[in-house]
Amino acid sequence: MASLYVGDLHPDVTESMLFEKFSTAGSVLSIRVCRDNASRLSLGYAYVNFQQPTDAERALDTMNFDILHGRPMRIMWSQRDPAVRRSGTGNIFIKNLDKVIDNKSIYDTFSLFGNILSCKVAVDEEGNSKGYGFVHFETEEAAQSAINKVNGMLLAGKKVFVGKFQPRSQRMREMGESTKKFTNVFIKNFGDALDKEALQKLFEPFGTITSCAVMTDGEGKSKGFGFVAYEQPEMAEKVTLFTSL
After folding, report:
1. CA torsion, points 98, 144, 65, 76, in degrees to nearest 10?
2. Burial 122-143 (b: 16+ CB within 10 A, else e)
3. For residues 8-38, b (16+ Cβ closer than 10 Å) or e, as one string?
4. CATH code assigned at 217
5. What are the contacts of 23-26 at 24+ separation with CB within 8 A?
6. Residue 166 — very low, low, confident or very high, per pLDDT cuts 50/70/90?
7. Hey, which of 12, 19, 108, 223 would disulfide with 215, CB 3.0 to 4.6 Å?
8. Residue 177 falls within a domain, yes or no?
9. Residue 98 in contact with residue 156, Cβ under 8 Å?
10. Are residues 130 and 205 in the same domain?
């Protein structure tokens, strides 16, 4: 058995409509339009199961982005393993897309580099492009080739950025690491009696200071806050740990 995911469906599309469409590609075992448990309204996607993988492949190759009930269908291989869907392997991110670039345009452009598992242009509630999209390739090599060849190219007259997609968990992890490497410390609420020299003397015990500044008003009076920059991140971290006690 081979299963296809069919997305971007009109809410009124039924199993019988999909059967009539996909049975022209081969023997269809079953079709399920996914619906809301409470309202039973369509969620806009379905699964079509073929008896033979070759029939499913034929449907994918010949029917992707065909119009059904006024909307182009977005067809891809069904990938029900969430770990694979969320992984960054083979995933690329495209931004600065012209509004005329749709799912089919993205597919036609990037399918030259390898087998595409899924692709999508992000849209708003009215169906208008948000100017960015994603392509998930079967292999990391295909993804890297697409990045190398398409990044910086003109698509519909606009220079696009193409790069490796980072899952949210990885982005948050890297952001966390970067915050640990700060060397600047913001000091506040010390009144107007503390000048630059006094501030530096106060914070020198934590490590080697490369620069120090007290913010002043137009008359040269302290605003009660300033900055201390250390040579090493560990020194700055000591200050934050000490002042948080």
Report:
1. -140
2. eeeeeeebebebebbbeeeebb
3. bbeeebeeebbeebbeebbebeebebeeeee
4. 3.30.70.330
5. 25/50, 25/55, 25/56, 25/58, 25/59, 25/62, 25/63, 26/50, 26/51, 26/52, 26/54, 26/55, 26/56, 26/58, 26/59
6. confident
7. 223
8. no
9. yes
10. no
DSSP 180: T
**H, E, C per residue of 39-105:** CCCEEEEEEEEECCHHHHHHHHHHHCCCEECCEECEEEECCCCHHHHHCCCCEEEEECCCCCCCHHH
Backbone angles phi and psi of 191, in degrees to 5? 70, -165
Model pLDDT for residues 35-47, shown as the tens digit of each residue: 999 999 999 999 9
Distance CA 158, CA 152 (A): 9
Burial label for 91, CB within 10 Å (0-12, 13-18, 19+), is buried
CA atoms within 13 A on the CB side of 130: 11
Terminal-residue alpha carbon distance, the chain:
62
Q: What pLDDT, in 10s, does the model give residues 49-80?
A: 999 999 999 999 899 999 999 999 999 988 75
- What is the residue range of 73's domain? 2-77
**For residues 123 and 126, what is the distance between their CA atoms, to the nearest angstrom?**
8
Residue 64: inside a domain: yes
- Token pair, residue 71, equals 């909307």
Tell me the one-letter amino acid at 25.
Answer: A
Q: Hey, what are 183's tokens?
A: 């060397």
Say how far apart CA 85 and CA 3 lie, in whole Å.
16
Beta bridge partners of 159: 154
The number of domains in the chain is 3
